[in-house]
Every structure is written in structure tokens, then in C-alpha cells.
Amino acid sequence: MKLSEAWLREWVDPQLDTAALAEQLTMAGLEVDMVEPAAPAFHDVVVARILSTDRHPNADRLRVCTVEAGQGAPLTIVCGAANARAGLCAPLALPGAELPGGLKISRSTVRGIESAGMLCSARELGLSEDAAGLLELPADAPVGHALRDYLQLDDAVLTLELTPNRGDCLSVMGLAREVAVLNRLPLTGPALAAIASTSDEIRQVRIDNAAACPRYAGRVVTGIDPRAVTPLWMRERLRRAGLRCIHPVVDITNYVLLELGQPMHAFDLARLQGGIVVRNAKPGESLTLLDGQTVALHASTLVIADVGGPVAMAGVMGGLPTAVSAETTDIFFESACFTPQAVAGQGRRYKLHTDSLHRFERGVDPALQLRALERATQLLLEIAGGQPGPVTDVCSPPEAASAIRLRHARLTRLLGASLDAAEVERILRALDMRVEAGAAGEWHVTPPSWRYDITLEADLIEEVARIHGYGRLPLRAQRVSLPAVSETESRLPESRLRECLIQRGYQEAVTYSFVEPQLQAQLDPSASAIDLDNPIAAPLAQMRTTLWSSLLPAWLYNVQRQQERVRLFELGMRFVRDPAAPHGIRQEPMLAGLVSGTARPEQWALPARAVDFYDLKADVEAVLAIGGRAAEFRIQAPLPGRQHPALHPGQCAQVVWRGDGRVIGWLGRLSPVLALSVRGLDIGAALPLVFELEAAPLREAHLPLARPIPEFPFVRRDLAIVIAEELAGQAVLDCIQTAGEALLRDVLIFDVYRGQGLQSGFKSVALGLIFQDYSRTLTDTEVDQSIARLQDRLNKVLGATVRG
Questions:
Q1: 223 Cβ partners below 8 Å, 6+ apart?
Q2: Residue 389 φ then ψ, to 5°
Q3: Which residues lie below 8 Å from residue 742, measured CB to CB, with a gap of 6+?
Q4: pTM for the predicted model, two decimal places
């Protein structure tokens, strides 16, 4: 919000300079983002009156003006402005003047006529972009008076970045209230009295949705002068607030908006059909707005309607068919209160943002409408005349405001300082709050109607701290008693998972939980994704059900920027529908990774090769082994017909947790089908390898168990068995490890052979079997008996035979 400092000081004028005032407001929570002059620097520009104009003898487009400028004798000025005419008051830059942009004025000869200065447009003075003609000043402007003094241009414009909860400060009056309280000064404002009606013209008002519109006030004003113009003082204040002048009636509504914070609208009375109805839009209704666009109205949209249909979108924008124009002589002023709930979201739905909507979304004082209506009527009568009719005021009985309990002890605890009870009461009452004493050390405080943001005890404490001054609160370390957090070695911290992958060359990615629906549908087609009601961007319209839908765009972004070797991981949440979960959504922590490019960074010692499935499998096995429970996980090929739809059928595997026998993750190369079905993936680069695992099982760890170094030697026997080609090596290891051989300490596969000497469809697997006892040396007989039992089990379970 932009605001003239001079306008603010008409309401309250503290003994502070501009910088100190801006600092005070900022420290009170009303951040002043910028302070800039109301007009650029220029000097020796005065108010002048054109006495006469004659055609330039040597130029058709120039005129020779005789100008009175308070310099004694009249001056001759050559001017090319189309609106230069006798009787016009306009700015005159005298010889020696310097205008914005460094333009220096001196006496000059223009086509043979000497000119003693330059009559100026608003653009030449840096007051606007309007260069269509001279800046027209009021007829009673003091001739010879310095223009800067006359227009009060030595003013500052404050730009405030208000937080959404302080909608009450989006006006001169609201900001002046704060300044008055901070400086213990009275608040003044324009003198205002009820305007007596001089006509009987009214428009009936009916509210069909009182919950969305608790109050609607209006007044008919007839016989206004269509030739009236907005006075210069009002145009200047609107300009400094960043608003352009449109029409006196519209300018008045904008002025009241800035001054009091009440959005208003004016209808051309001749274009209204019958009375006013505040209701929700009906199916099939549309409205052409003031900006010219026609919108189809949603059933939840609150509208202002007449007999013929909607004439305005409530709290957002008026309709073009009933807008005031240069021919308007009769108007209907609207001053209403629409609840934040009624207008919230309408701007996003229709892609609109207006000053009215900005205020109604944050809350407009429901007691302000009549005051604003009287102020607008007063200004209109002063500027354009007219006969006001009686005020129509339709309102619902307001709900009694609830008192909030404020405890002195709680205030002292949160602020770290003990404020005197009388000071606390003074601050609250200065903020127009009703304060009643409760139990010992307590108050019951009722906020004023314009403070939508005060609902809790903490809000009151914030108000006390704000007005008392954050800088006056003592700097004191708070003593807090925190219970010790009980950590268990059987649960790994998430940092261990991160460290494992970082040590293996991965980089952590932190991405949005919002993803592109089309990509997610290809990666996880069976999931029921959760759509966002209000996505931050059109492509980010769903909550992710797999972290791959976040990592894949990150990979694509890097590859498109010549990053050939990419290794990313993310530890984050996926979101799945679950009727048993709160709000029907379950959040699951997941660990996902992605690799592409070469297996190792470019170097001289090893030839470059592309990363493959087994490189990724090694990374996943390293993660599974962190907690010392690698034996509880199995990486295995999926059963026929149960492959992952996003992975290459021949290069994928699933991770099974033996704790409950379920699949907790997948790994493999993305399917080439994705490059054909998802726009952007057909970039020519090989699709990456990916994995995704549930994080919870990975964090379960075995407690460390210490054993003495064995004093007796181990015995190793190698055994080669022939098994069917389709049997996995893990099946062999599982068969041996579950055989129950007490002396067997370890088993490993050290060779796999296929070829000459073996039947087609079979392979030879070489096993290393390690036997050991911690209390004695084993005999060959014991080892041979154990091996014989293992051979028999392998034959019965897997059909394995010993290779000769």
C-alpha cells in the first residue's frame, strides 16, 4: 500500500521526521518497505495564468501566449500544447529552472519569437505519464506561487508491506490509529456530519445470503453535474497512492477506499433495473466486468443483481453495463460488508486482483459502511452537486464479540518482562479494546470490530508488546526445562541413510511434494493421486505418490544443461489415500534415488562405462546393510505379470522385507515407454536407473553384539553344485543358511560357470563354506558330515547336484 505522509499527518501529526516515523511503524509490525519523494526534484516552476493566445506567425502548431506569472509584466511564452487557452492556469518553468531529467530552462527564440520560459505538462514535471497537454490547475490557483508549495510536492510517499492479518491498516484512518496510539496523540479526521436527503429517490435492497453479506447500505444521488472534474488535490492524493483518475464518481469511491478502508462502488442509476439483490450466482449466469472481460459465474460466487441479472461481482469488481460514464447524472452508491469467507478464492478463480478484493479478503470493519457512505456523499456534493436520497441500510444483527481472557502471568512469561498492570490496560484501551477486570491478575478483553486478527490470548500479548515497544523489552535468556530425549540404538537416524548415499557419490535433492499429473500417472498408474484445490502452478497439481515423479524432472533439468553424470537421492514423504488415516491421507517416509551417465567420474586409470543395474543394486544393498540387518532383505526379480509398470521388464527388481514378507521397494531402469508417452523425456539420453524404498524398515537396526576373536582355526570347504539356470543365487544361500548347521559360520558364492560340460539350461555355482567352533578345533569327520547334510538338502529343495 502506498500512502502520502502529508495525508497521514492530517489525521495525526507526531513530532517525528519521515525516517523516524517509518522506523516507528516498522518496529510496530507495519513494515515500511520504501520511502520516496512525492515528486522528483525541480525548481523555479510557478503557477501561471494564460491571458491570451495567438497563432505563431511561423509555425501552425505553435501558439504565442501572453502569461501572467507574478513577475510584474506579463511574459511571452511559445507553447505547442493543444489545450493552451486564455484563462487557463498551468505550471510555468521560468528561465533558470531545472526540470526532472536535467532539462534546464532559459530564454530562447522559437521560430523567430522569444520565449521567456516553458509552460509544462504533468509528464515534464514527473507527476504522471500524461503528456497530452498542459497540466491544468484550478482557476483560483495563486498566480506566481511556487508550484511545489501549492501542490505540497515536498511530501513523502510511504510504501508499506502489511502482513495479511492487518487489513485494518489498509487506509489512512487505520494507519493513523496506530500512529496515534504509538505516540499517545488524539486522532483527528475530516469533519463529517449526516447528509440530509433532498430527494425521495431510493432503490430497494434485499440480502439473500446474510452469512456472506451482513450489511449492505446504499444511497441514490440524482442530478450530478456530468461536466464536473476531479479536483487537483484529490487527483494528487490518488496519484501518490498509485491510482489514476477515471471519473469524479469513481475517484471519490477510490478516495474513500484509501481514506477509510471501505471499498465502494457506484452504479449508473439509469442502467439499473429495479431493486438490488445480494445473492449467489445462478447456473448459466455471466457478467461483463469493468475491465471488459466476460466471466461465467460459479454458483459459489456472491453477486449484486438487479431484475435483469448480475451487475457486479460482490467485493471484487463491478459490471461494465451499469458503470458510470461521462453522461451519468444519477447514481446509486454501494457501501457493503462482505465476509472474508465469501470472497476468498474468487480472485484466483477468475484471475482477478482488485483493491476491494484485497481488503475484503482481510476483513473490512462491519461498522464502517454508513460512515463511508456519508463521506462519499459529502465529497460528491462538493465536487459535482446533486440531490441525495435517503440511506438504505440492510443489516443482520451483529453477533456479540467474545471476550478473550488475558493473564498477567502469561504475558510476563511470554515477554520475559513484567509490565505494570496499569500500562497493560492503557495500551489495550488505546487500541479501542474493551477491558474488564476478571479474577486476580486477569482481564477480559473484547477487540474492536475492525480487528479480525485478534482471537487468542497470544494476540493480545502481541499487541501489548508491539505498542510497548519490542526495543524496550529486556534482553534476557529464557530458562526452559527440556526433558532428555530417549534415543535407542535399535533405530537409526535419518542422517545415516543420507550419509551412506552421499559417501557413494549421490547428492541430496529437496523437491516439491507437488508434481505433474501426467508424469505421475505414467510412473505410478495404480495409485489414486490427491489433486490440489489450489496448485501453485498448473504443472504441480497433485501430491506425489512416488518420489520418482519429483526426481525425474530434476534429472531432466540437469541433463538438458549438459550434466551427463547425475546421481540424486531424496528422503521425503509420499502421500496416499487411506480412509483410516486423518483426513483420509497417509504420509509415508520414502528414500528414492536416481543415477545416470557413467559409473565413475572420468579418469585415466579406468575406461569409462555406463552405469548399469548392478551398480544401482550395489548402492541399494549398501543402504539395506546400514542397520546390520541385510539378511532380512531380499532383492529379487518380480513374478511374471507383477513387474513395475514404470521399469524396464528385463532390468528391474523388488525389495522384500522378510520381517513381514511385503515388498518395500523397487529398483531398475525406467521403461523406454516413458520416453514415448511423457513429453520432454525424448531427449536422446538413456533413461536413468532409479530406486525407491520405504524408509521405516531401513531405520530398524540390530543392537551391536561383541564377540571375542576366535582362538581356534576355521575350516573352509569349496563346493560346486549344478542348478537350473532360472534359480537365483540367493535361493541357494537361503537354502544353506536355513539348514540349521550349527558349525557353519558363513557361506559365499565365488564363481558361476556356464558352458562346456554342462547341460543346456543349467549353471554351476561355486560355494565357499566356512566352519568354525569357538571352543575347539573341528575334525574333518565333523565337517564332512555337515557338508553331506547340506548336499542332501540342496538336492531335495533345489534339485542341485554336486559337480564332479
A1: 329, 330, 385, 386, 387
A2: -95, 180
A3: none
A4: 0.68
